[in-house]
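Q: Okay, next protein. This is Core domain-containing protein from Pontibacillus marinus BH030004 = DSM 16465. I've checked the sequence twice, so it should be correct. Can you predict the 3D structure?
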Amino acid sequence: MKLTITDEALHQLQLLQPEGRPNLRMEYDSDGCGCGVNGMPSIYFTNESTEYDIKVENEHYTIFLDEQQKIFFKPVMTLEWNKRLFRLKSPEGMLNPSLSSASIKQGGDPRE
């Protein structure tokens, strides 16, 4: 599994990166979506990993993904910045068209 980060997205990530959270985590977020197969792929900064994580190939960051969530992602993906939001896509189509800067920086939890 590989994630390419465009130059514009990389610049935005570098501006957002919180101190003490050097890695990214990809996650299939199903909170508030009903059942476990209804959700959206997300990505956020973290300093944690688990024994169940696999690494997603990337040139700039160490990126973790829970191996069981691998089925919700594509083998080749791109994270891009459209001057307002991040977008996660694959050659097959859009995985998440609207990843906010706040959710990437805070892990989707505004209390952090």
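A: Here is a summary of the prediction. The radius of gyration is 13 Å. The chain has one domain: 2-106.
Q: Noted. On to the next one.
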